[in-house]
Amino acid sequence: MDAQNVDYFLMANAKFLEDHQIFHIRERLLAMDESQWRMLQFMQFTDPVIVLIVSILTGPLAIDRFLIGDVGLGVVKLLTCGGLGIWVVVDWILIMGITRRKNTEKLMMAIY
């Protein structure tokens, strides 16, 4: 794949991905062919900032966990009212990193 297109893709989507994986992702994107590249252009990632805002506003309802695809943890968080508030506070700290990890895993599944 063209290095310029890969760099544009990474610049546009770097905020959605884990920082320490960018180099590995770039190398893998450079090795892709044109047919795989077209599929990647239409991938949608979950914005970590939006998930953090949802987590702050609706913490005990576990909507943040459902947004990132953690349905099992979302149900448990919902049934325990956010772990009696403790889980809600922990998610405020960790949810952006978890969202980036989920986005990176989604991209890795698409490029392998």
Question: What features would you describe in this structure?
Answer:
By secondary structure, this protein is mainly α. The protein has one domain. Helix content is about 75%, strand content about 0%. It is elongated, with a radius of gyration of 16 Å. The two termini are about 15 Å apart. The model has no long low-confidence stretch (mean pLDDT about 90).
What is this structure's SSE topology?
Elements: H1 3-13, H2 22-30, H3 34-40, H4 48-57, H5 63-68, H6 71-79, H7 81-84, H8 86-111
Could you provide a short overview of the structure?
By secondary structure, the protein is mainly α.
**What fraction of residues sit in β-strands?**
under 5%
What's the average pLDDT? 91
Give the helix tally. Answer: 8
Rg, rounded, reads: 16 Å
Helix content: over 70%
Q: Note the quaternary state here.
A: single chain
Order of helices and strands: HHHHHHHH
Low-pLDDT stretches: none
Instruction: Based on Cα principal axes, name the global outline.
Output: elongated
The largest sheet, given as strand count, sense and whether it forms a barrel, is: none
CA-CA gap between termini: 15 Å
Core attributes:
8 helices; 112 residues; mainly alpha
